[in-house]
Amino acid sequence: MIKSFRNKALKDLFIEGKSHKLDQKLIARCLTRLDVLDYAERPEDLNLPGFNFHGLQGNPKRYTIHVNGAWCITFEWRGTDAWALDLEQYH
Questions:
Q1: What stretches in the chain show pLDDT beneath 50?
Q2: CA nearest 4: which of 90, 75, 91?
Q3: By Cβ atoms counted within 10 A, which residue in 52, 61, 62, 69 is the most buried?
Q4: Which residues contact 58 (CB under 8 A, 6 or more apart)?
């Protein structure tokens, strides 16, 4: 289950189903990934075709799933929940 966000536009999209701050080309793919993140019980549940799921280096441990181009949703995983979701270009 999603517990918190770093990115306000991503939070608005998750809660309201829309965000005027996000590139419209990213919205449908972000919504799909947010739905999967909200139902996931462990990080490995996100290892799906097209998501390019993998762990990132650093502490605390963060993970990433691909959205489009260089855009990714990054997050921490604690217990059975996703925390501190962010939308970023980190490449």
A1: none
A2: 75
A3: 62
A4: none
